[in-house]
Automatic annotation (TrEMBL), chain A:
Name under which the protein is recorded: Platelet-activating factor acetylhydrolase IB subunit alpha1
Keywords linked to the UniProt accession: Acetylation, Cytoplasm, Hydrolase, Lipid degradation, Lipid metabolism, Phosphoprotein
Protein's job: Alpha1 catalytic subunit of the cytosolic type I platelet-activating factor (PAF) acetylhydrolase (PAF-AH (I)) heterotetrameric enzyme that catalyzes the hydrolyze of the acetyl group at the sn-2 position of PAF and its analogs and modulates the action of PAF. The activity and substrate specificity of PAF-AH (I) are affected by its subunit composition.
GO cellular component, one term: cytoplasm
Predominant place of localization: cytoplasm
Gene label: PAFAH1B3
GO molecular function: 1-alkyl-2-acetylglycerophosphocholine esterase activity; platelet-activating factor acetyltransferase activity; protein heterodimerization activity; protein homodimerization activity
Gene3D superfamilies, alphabetized: SGNH hydrolase
GO annotation (BP), single: lipid catabolic process
Assigned EC number: 3.1.1.47
Family: Belongs to the 'GDSL' lipolytic enzyme family. Platelet-activating factor acetylhydrolase IB beta/gamma subunits subfamily.
UniProt catalytic activity: a 1-O-alkyl-2-acetyl-sn-glycero-3-phosphocholine + H2O = a 1-O-alkyl-sn-glycero-3-phosphocholine + acetate + H(+); 1-O-hexadecyl-2-acetyl-sn-glycero-3-phosphate + H2O = 1-O-hexadecyl-sn-glycero-3-phosphate + acetate + H(+); 1-O-hexadecyl-2-acetyl-sn-glycero-3-phosphocholine + H2O = 1-O-hexadecyl-sn-glycero-3-phosphocholine + acetate + H(+)
Oligomeric and partner information: Forms a catalytic dimer which is either homodimer (alpha1/alpha1 homodimer) or heterodimer with PAFAH1B2 (alpha1/alpha2 heterodimer). Component of the cytosolic (PAF-AH (I)) heterotetrameric enzyme, which is composed of PAFAH1B1 (beta), PAFAH1B2 (alpha2) and PAFAH1B3 (alpha1) subunits. The catalytic activity of the enzyme resides in the alpha1 (PAFAH1B3) and alpha2 (PAFAH1B2) subunits, whereas the beta subunit (PAFAH1B1) has regulatory activity. Trimer formation is not essential for the catalytic activity. Interacts with VLDLR; this interaction may modulate the Reelin pathway.
Automatic annotation (TrEMBL), chain B:
Domain of life: Eukaryota
Enzyme nomenclature, EC number: 3.1.1.47
Enzyme superclass (EC): hydrolase
UniProt xrefs under CDD domains: PAF_acetylesterase_like (cd01820)
Species per Swiss-Prot/TrEMBL record: Gopherus evgoodei
Location(s) in or outside the cell: Cytoplasm
GO biological process: lipid catabolic process; positive regulation of macroautophagy; spermatogenesis
Entry protein name: Platelet-activating factor acetylhydrolase IB subunit alpha2
Domain SGNH hydrolase-type esterase: start-end pairs: 44-203
Family as reported in the entry's similarity comment: Belongs to the 'GDSL' lipolytic enzyme family. Platelet-activating factor acetylhydrolase IB beta/gamma subunits subfamily.
GO molecular function terms attached to this record: 1-alkyl-2-acetylglycerophosphocholine esterase activity; platelet-activating factor acetyltransferase activity
GO CC, one annotated term: plasma membrane
């Protein structure tokens, strides 16, 4: 909370409705309302990479069976996810695992700021959801060829890899299966616009995440009454 | 061409690389290369409504078999599509049908300007691809509940209904019905974020679209004869 003064990526902030149809807020309220009678074991929260995942068959194959909910919102930066959590987006649910995947849309923020924003999310989750393990997914490379955003995302991952082990119940997973080819290019077969994943891109990335979730859920079970 | 001075939605405009990874230009360049390599019979051009369509199974079922190419880019306005079509995305190809779906992202423009931008796209296609039959898809309603953008998009559709019949080889396919329920709400089952379509949402519009494309393809004088020989 104090972080916010110095780090814009860690200052909770709603997404402004510049377009005029109130979709962002409507979805935030829908997430709250729809979760009232659900008991998810896993909740995914983040940006379009989370949101779009649910549009593909792989969600039904791998994650629905784990009783997962999807709170992804396209365009979100860390400050938006923070705001949603602070405003009680998860107030009705107590999942065993929260998967956090956000940071690539934090334009204008440095890698340190973005990492700080993600850490603020993890710390807020630890307060609100003390029973949950938090899995932070690494930011993916983007753009067809090498560019500064790849460097920034890589640096964010580096910082998170170092810092997250210090936070209780949090872990970092770099699920990039090697989207950047030896010539430095990303293929549109993996990312149709060099940012968002295709079905094929998700199929390459999800197995590692799925395996981790199974392991963590198994550990939760082992630790049960 | 003359309208361009007074209508910003009808002035070709490349997207600026604000984020820093040049993805818009990369996608455009890829489409230009596609034009050199491929021989589409059907071309789809527009914004994310077009682009996302290709991510769902329905594209492979209904449109790949028709040798269709997808030149959708998320976020595009009429001005962006105009620029792309003028700068290589209509070269080296001779599609029989071109589907145009754009306008919902024209936030800086009035309904009249948006309709004018779509008309400018059709006129450009008429010039560069005189053999192509053009299908303009209506703009869809958006937002969970009634809001000004729904009215604006409906107005664009209304204007196009009046103006497109005056242009050559083009028709408006209105697929905007069936999304707004009696209580004025749009469902997440049709539009997962009250703008972009789910697989189910696309199924609703692709049925009439596919039918119309098939009809137009059948009408096209052939080349089929030459292929059979």
């Amino acid at each position: 909370m104090s972080d916010g003064d110095r780090n814009p990526a860690a200052a909770p902030r709603p997404l402004a409705d510049v377009q005029g149809d109130g979709r962002w807020l409507a979805l935030h309220h829908r997430f709250i309302a729809d979760s009232k009678d659900k008991e998810p074991e896993v909740v995914f929260i983040g940006d379009a990479l989370v949101q779009l995942l649910q549009q593909f068959e792989i969600w039904r194959e791998l994650f629905s069976p784990l009783h997962a909910l999807n709170f992804g919102l396209g365009g979100d930066g860390t400050q938006h996810v923070l705001w949603r959590l602070q405003q009680g987006e998860m107030q009705h649910i107590w999942p065993k695992i929260v998967v956090v995947w956000v940071g690539t849309n934090n334009h204008g923020h440095t890698a340190e700021q973005v990492a700080g924003g993600i850490e603020a999310i993890v710390r807020l989750l630890q307060e609100q959801q003390p029973q949950a393990r938090v899995v932070v997914l690494g930011l993916l490379p983007r753009g067809q060829g090498p560019n500064p955003l790849r460097e920034r995302n890589r640096r964010v991952n580096e910082l998170l890899q170092a810092r997250l082990p210090r936070l209780p119940n949090a872990c970092f997973l770099d699920a990039d299966p090697g989207f950047v080819h030896s010539d430095g290019a990303i293929s549109h077969h993996d990312m149709y616009d060099y940012l968002h994943l295709t079905r094929h891109g998700y199929a390459r990335l999800c197995p590692r995440l799925h395996a981790l979730l199974l392991r963590l859920l198994g550990e939760c079970q082992g630790a049960g009454p | 061409m003359s309208q361009g001075d007074s209508n910003p939605a009808a002035v070709p405009h490349a997207a600026e690389d604000i984020q820093g990874d040049d993805r818009w230009m990369s996608q455009h360049n890829r489409f230009v290369l596609d034009c050199k390599d491929k021989e589409p019979d059907v071309l789809f051009v527009g914004d994310s409504m077009v682009q996302l369509l290709q991510q769902y199974e329905i594209w492979r079922e209904l449109f790949s078999p028709l040798h269709a190419l997808n030149f959708g880019i998320g976020g595009d306005t009429t001005a962006h599509v105009l620029w792309r079509l003028k700068n290589g995305e209509l070269e080296n190809i001779k599609p029989k049908v071109i589907v145009v779906w754009v306008g919902t992202n024209n936030h800086e423009n009035t309904a009249e300007e948006v309709a004018g931008g779509i008309e400018a796209i059709v006129r450009l296609i008429n010039t560069r691809q005189p053999q192509a039959k053009v299908i303009v898809l209506s703009l869809l309603p958006r937002g969970e509940k009634p809001n000004p953008l729904r009215q604006k998009n409906a107005k664009v559709n209304q204007l196009l209904k009046a103006s497109l019949p005056k242009l050559a080889s083009v028709q408006l396919l209105d697929v905007s019905g069936g999304f707004v329920h009696s209580d004025g709400a749009i469902s997440c089952h049709d539009m997962f974020d009250f703008l972009h379509l789910t697989g189910g949402g696309y199924a609703k519009i692709c049925k009439p679209l596919h039918e119309l494309i098939m009809q137009l393809l059948e009408e096209t004088p052939e080349e089929k004869q030459a292929a059979l020989a």
